[in-house]
Write a structure and sequence with these properties.
By secondary structure, this protein is an alpha/beta fold. The chain folds into two domains: 3-74, Helix Hairpins (Orthogonal Bundle); 89-153, Chitinase A, domain 3, CATH 3.10.50. 40% of the residues lie in helices and 27% in strands. The chain has three helices and seven strands, in the order βααββββαββ. The strands form two sheets. The protein has a five-stranded mixed sheet with strand order 5-4-3-7-6. It has a two-stranded parallel ribbon with strand order 1-2. Strand 6 and strand 7 form a beta hairpin. The longest helix has 30 residues, at 7-36. It is elongated. The two termini are 27 Å apart.
């Protein structure tokens, strides 16, 4: 299933993939080789740990390759800012708490609330999609309902 991603997010995935292929994969192979030199691998915890790490590295490589194959890159500055969509930065007013928040709307691959990156598939992200400046959006979250006013889209 295709997923939207920013050019910055795509670059991060590509960088991580290159690291896994060109550094982590080689380091793990070296640890496996060293562990084999300890003798009987049937009772060798170092060998077991290295093989487990190898499986995790290979799994992440496959996952990243699949994400990159299906990625639809949202180019910065080339999207409509008349309404909220992936790639936009949105300034919101939480009407109950009277606090403002600014989030960049990104695909689920890039989502990181700590960096103010909100997935377009999260409850808040989904609710905001397609709405315009000055509209009030009500979002149902596990703790109840929240009302946001869209102050700015950029």
């Amino acid at each position: 299933m295709p997923q939207e991603i920013t050019a910055e997010g795509k670059k991060k995935l590509e960088d991580r993939l290159q690291y896994l292929k060109n550094v982590a994969r080689i380091e793990v192979a070296e640890r496996i080789k060293e562990a084999r030199e300890f003798g009987d691998i049937s009772e060798n915890s170092e060998y077991d740990a290295a093989k487990e790490e190898q499986a995790m590295v290979e799994g992440e490589i496959l996952e990243l390759e699949a994400k990159l194959r299906s990625a639809i890159v949202i180019e910065e500055g080339k999207h409509d800012i008349a309404s909220v969509n992936t790639g936009c930065t949105v300034k919101l007013l939480d009407m109950d708490m009277d606090e403002t928040f600014t989030y960049k709307i990104v695909g689920p691959t890039e989502s990181d609330p700590a960096e103010q990156k909100l997935s377009n598939q999260s409850p808040v992200g989904k609710a905001l999609m397609g709405h315009k400046k000055n509209e009030v959006v009500e979002v149902t979250v596990p703790s109840g309902k929240i009302k946001f006013k869209i102050l700015k889209i950029s």
